[in-house]
Amino acid sequence: MEPGAPDGGKQGTSSSSRLPVTVHTTAAAACGAIASEVAELVQAQPAAALGLATGSTMVGVYAALLRVAAERDVSLSQVRTFNLDEYLGLPPESPASFRAFMEAHLFEAAGLSGEQVAFPVSPYADANGSSARSARAFEAAIEGAGGVELQLLGLGGNGHIAFNEPGSRFDSRTREVELAPRTRADAAASFGSLEAVPRRAVTMGVGTILEARRIRIVALGEHKAEIVARLVAGAAGDEVPASFLAGHADVQLHVDAAAASRLSAG
Ligand code: GLP
Q1: Is the model's pLDDT at 16 over the cut of 60?
Q2: Catalytic site positions
Q3: Which of 138, 159, 201, 223 is the most exposed place for a label (fewest CB within 10 A)?
Q4: pLDDT of residue 236
Q5: Domains plus CATH for the chain?
């Protein structure tokens, strides 16, 4: 089967290889499609538990979500959110924390705060062993919320999901991890220098992610074309952690034309 072809903003969907992929002509169309689905879910279930991601891909997704929710008069203010990951060892005021990212791009505008929003670790925790406790509490909170209804995911250039780097197990749970050199290099711009990028983080596990009822993964831009092609061609195993998603019952990879540019036609 061939991947869906760009089609002028509408969706071209096919169950290529192992991971169903939807190709959108533009990044805006991809973000709009995801935003629409999330808004529809929240309209039906105002207190839905959403799994949230960070990264530049999500900037457009959250902007679209706020716009679509306003257009359709859907309030996001009752949802529960569970973020995928957070760096360890950042000072509380760091603007590079994922919590700060979420405040800036979604939480403040959506009216989300306090216990509604959960992260696997507080941004100011140090790597002294306290992460195991907060990771367990995080997993328990997801369970207490009845599980994640829809999980948003970005795609790392090396195929990571959240901070599950190559080598992560398919059944891994929320835990402290060491970041791959490529992941740290990709994050250097947000921190001003490579040296400033933390070496460790706490991430939802692959097994934790796979328990979400729906998973929507988004990859935009030419720089994601190579990993998207590997993934859609059926790369398998722990060298490309995103490949573990292919076995999920309700997973969809959304890409723009640039990220789809290395998909083979047949
Ligand atoms: C970080 C995050 C991932 C995200 C990735 C891609 O590594 N931990 O969850 O998917 O960045 O980020 P971007 O969307 O900026 O390419």
Answers
A1: no
A2: 85, 158, 160, 165
A3: 223
A4: 82
A5: 10-256 (3.40.50.1360)
